[in-house]
Prior knowledge:
By secondary structure, this protein is of the alpha/beta class. It has helices at residues 23-34, 46-56, 72-84, 107-141, 156-160, 166-186, 229-238, 247-258, and strands spanning 14-17, 38-43, 60-64, 89-92, 148-155, 191-198, 214-218, 221-225, 269-272. The strands form 2 sheets. It has a 7-stranded parallel sheet with strand order 3-2-1-4-5-6-9, sandwiched between helices. The longest helix is centred in the middle third of the chain and has 35 residues, at 107-141. The protein binds nicotinamide-adenine-dinucleotide. Nicotinamide-adenine-dinucleotide binds at residues 18-19, 21-25, 42-45, 48, 66-68, 93-96, 116, 153, 155, 198, 200-201, 203-206, 218.
Amino acid sequence: MYHNVVPFTLAGKTALVTGAGRGIGRAIAEKLAEYGASVMINDLDAAPAGEAAEAIGAKAAALAGDVTDPAFPQRLVDATVERFGGLDIIVNNAGYTWDNVIQKTTDEQFEAMLKIHLVAPFRILRAASGVIRETAKREAAAGVRVTRKVVNITSIAGTDGNPGQAGYSSGKAGVVGLTKTMAKEWGRYNVTVNAVGFGLIETRLTQPLAGEAASIDVQGRKIAVGVQPAVLDWVKKGCPLGRTGTPEEAANAVLFFCSPLSDYVTGEVLICGGGLHF
Length: 278
Ligand SMILES: NC(=O)c1ccc[n+]([C@@H]2O[C@H](COP(=O)([O-])OP(=O)(O)OC[C@H]3O[C@@H](n4cnc5c(N)ncnc54)[C@H](O)[C@@H]3O)[C@@H](O)[C@H]2O)c1
């Protein structure tokens, strides 16, 4: 039987999305707001973070800052709770690639990948643990069950491995361990903790490398990003759906884990990659 009802709403929920100034994070923030959530938008780059919040309107705020700065995660969590009065959804999305074969990978490079993809999500969840536990205890005492959501972003480079990405794939595999452990620690507080891993989604990280390598500015370093056109062709041919994905399609997979539709799913990894595996 078909019925014409909206399957859920996120009205009254507060979400925190890191790396939401552009790309997939921005699409996630927009999607969550579209379904009614208030959203704190974080990004390293202040201008795109501000623009993303402005485009959403009154239900969004921006806090620019570096999630790998040890002091910043607590500031970000506190600012979110102060601004919107709670914290119901955390999406650890901020990230970038810094690739090379292992013999050309420096300690700094490898450690930077662990810091952004694994240590930062750990610190954000630790920073949020106070408000999560206290709120859940208050709700339990009042006899209500409210399910909160954590979604950590991983990659098929993390679940399958990918040459040239020792650091990136280690960070993205590590966050799966964090996800599964936090699902077990926070089940008692009705928090579902899941990961979404992407294949190839069209963002600045996966732009075709044409001639000169594109580069991004991260903490004062210029880092080359982009994908060889031959690899993009291979993805299009090798992936069952025959194409790369859009940020909106990526955000839809994250939305599932942020919604009541996934209230009985925790500690899982959903791959959103058109069937692609490395
Ligand atoms: N695009 C893909 O195909 C793909 C595939 C697998 C996984 N991912 C993952 O998806 C996430 C989003 O990537 P994207 O493709 O949208 O890239 P993107 O470059 O378009 O967006 C990532 C955002 O994260 C921000 N960021 C980077 N370092 C930060 C820091 N230290 N603190 C705060 N913000 C920071 C950047 O400024 C940027 O706005 C990343 O974790 C990435 O590893 C992407």
